[in-house]
Amino acid sequence: MTQTYLNEKQHKKKRAMKGVYAIIIVGIAFVFIMIKFATSGGVSEVLSFSKMPNADDAYKIATEFVTPTIRDGNISFPDDKYQFGKKTDSVFIIKSYVLSKDSRGQTNRTNFEVILKYNGGPKFLKKNWDLVDINETAE
Question: Which residue positions in the chain have pLDDT lower than 70?
Answer without folding.
Answer: 1-2, 40-50
